[in-house]
């Protein structure tokens, strides 16, 4: 970097076309992480915008909220679907659990940025401490999501009476509990399909993120980055982890609020 | 070769409390926006205005995460724009697919 004499980082020895210039002033690893994240933004955006498109192709539930029943004729109100909290069976607590999950993920993003900041200062103890907290946050979030999925799949006590075409291609009318890819008690089949697909893909990213966090935590703890002379890996893993948080912000709005 | 102790050879720079304060401030803003979204979900009527506000607040949050947490704002301009400008395509995707969705709605119901 110090060899660069001009603002756009042209090497004074070799000129513009001589090679060895760093016009973007970022390392190879960081650049590639950014471009990977850009491609991942497009993947998630495609999913979420498809969700939006499928959602507006169904009628919305129009009646009063307290007389809501699940039906595959209209799209459900999310706060009436996601209203359960662990250990509080039967208590109507709309969006409370998902609010806790959001809080956990944002907090883990904060501890991650503190780890990155510690990495800039070559402070191994702080890096290890904040990476550990970030991992705790990530694992807690995954646990919460596992519970959320389990509840979504098993359903409520009452279920909903639906008329639908079953896997044997027959039209049946029966009480449906929970959700699978064919039918669910909350809304049209596409509602559960999109829920599984999008939150599942996000959860998969979080899982990968926790693995990366652990590897980075371990390497920092045993002093690999000290020997290497810099803590840039913490920064790269941090970019990925913030991206996971970024996606969740959009999933939260589109799935749970709108 | 001498026996290496597992001890840092790098110089540890002391904490810059101002930077850390800024991180916590950003975290506070993110939490405050989320709490505001929560309150709005239960106090306002469902409709286009509410959806518009939700999406605007979400993009606002995304801006904070990308600029402050991912330090995109501190990168050089060419890198910044090479990440931000391609996202313009998404604007068109939203318009196209929402139109598509409403047309399917008209055909079905």
Topology record:
The complex is a heterodimer of chains A (258) and B (109).
Chain A: H1 28-56, H2 78-81, H3 96-120, H4 124-154, E1 160-165, E2 171-176, H5 189-221, H6 224-228, H7 232-257
Antiparallel strand pairs in A: 1-2
Chain B: H1 17-43, H2 48-69, H3 77-84, H4 88-108
Helix pairs in contact in B: 1-2
Would you mind describing this structure in some detail?
By secondary structure, chain A is mostly helical. Chain A has helices spanning 28-56, 78-81, 96-120, 124-154, 189-221, 224-228, 232-257; strands spanning 160-165, 171-176. A two-stranded antiparallel sheet of chain A has the order 1-2. In chain A, strand 1 (160-165) and strand 2 form a beta hairpin. In chain A, helix 1 (28-56) runs parallel beside helix 7, helix 3 (96-120) runs antiparallel to helix 7 (232-257) and helix 5 (189-221) runs antiparallel to helix 7 (232-257). Chain A is elongated and about 75 Å long. Chain A starts with 27 loop residues before the first helix and ends with a helix. By secondary structure, chain B is mainly alpha-helical. Chain B contains four helices and no strands. In chain B, helix 1 (17-43) packs antiparallel against helix 2. The termini of chain B are far apart. At the A-B interface, helix 1, helix 3 and helix 7 of A face helix 1, helix 2, helix 3 and helix 4 of B.
Tally of strands of chain A: 2
Major sheet details of chain B: none
Rounded mean pLDDT of chain B is 88
Computed Rg of chain B: 22 Å
Query: What is the oligomer described by this structure?
Result: heterodimer
**Helix-strand makeup class of chain B:** mainly alpha
Biggest sheet record of chain A: 2 strands, antiparallel
Helix content of chain A: 55-70%
- State the end-to-end CA separation of chain A: 47 Å
List low-pLDDT spans of chain B: none
| Total strand segments of chain B | 0
Q: β content of chain B, as a range?
A: under 5%
Rg of chain A to the nearest angstrom? 23 Å
As a percent range, the share of strand residues of chain A is: under 5%
Ends of chain B: how far apart?
80 Å
Biggest interface, chains and residue tallies? A-B, 62 and 57 residues
Helical fraction of chain B equals over 70%
Low-confidence stretches of chain A: 1-6
């Amino acid at each position: 970097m110090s060899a660069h004499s001009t603002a756009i980082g042209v090497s004074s020895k070799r000129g513009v076309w001589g090679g060895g210039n760093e016009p973007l002033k970022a390392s190879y690893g960081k650049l590639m992480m950014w471009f990977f994240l850009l491609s991942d933004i497009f993947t998630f955006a495609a999913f979420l915008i498809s969700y939006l498109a499928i959602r507006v192709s169904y009628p919305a539930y129009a009646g009063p909220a307290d007389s809501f029943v699940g039906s595959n004729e209209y799209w459900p109100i999310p706060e009436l679907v996601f209203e359960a909290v662990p250990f509080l069976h039967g208590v109507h607590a709309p969006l409370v659990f998902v609010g806790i999950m959001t809080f956990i993920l944002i907090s883990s993003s904060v501890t991650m940025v503190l780890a990155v900041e510690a990495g800039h200062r070559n402070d191994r103890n702080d890096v290890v401490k904040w990476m550990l907290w970030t991992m705790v946050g990530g694992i807690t979030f995954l646990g919460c999501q596992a519970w959320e999925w389990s509840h979504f799949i098993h359903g409520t006590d009452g279920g909903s009476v639906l008329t639908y075409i079953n896997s044997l291609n027959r039209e049946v009318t029966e009480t449906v509990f929970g959700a699978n890819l064919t039918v669910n008690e909350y809304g049209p089949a596409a509602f559960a399909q999109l829920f599984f697909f999008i939150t599942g893909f996000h959860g998969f990213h979080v899982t990968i993120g926790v693995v990366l966090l652990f590897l980075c935590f371990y390497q920092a703890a045993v002093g690999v980055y000290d020997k290497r002379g810099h803590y840039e890996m913490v920064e790269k893993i941090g970019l990925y982890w913030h991206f996971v948080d970024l996606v969740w912000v959009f999933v939260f709005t589109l799935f749970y609020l709108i | 070769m001498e026996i290496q102790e597992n001890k840092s050879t790098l110089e540890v720079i002391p904490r810059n409390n101002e930077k850390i304060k800024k991180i916590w401030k950003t975290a506070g803003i993110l939490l405050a926006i989320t709490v505001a979204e929560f309150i709005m979900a239960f106090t306002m009527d469902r409709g286009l205005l509410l959806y518009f506000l939700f999406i605007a607040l979400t993009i606002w949050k995304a801006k904070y995460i990308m600029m402050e947490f991912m330090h995109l704002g501190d990168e050089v301009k060419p890198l910044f724009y090479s990440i931000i400008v391609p996202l313009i395509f998404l604007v068109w995707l939203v318009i196209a697919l929402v139109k598509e969705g409403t047309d399917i709605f008209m055909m079905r119901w």
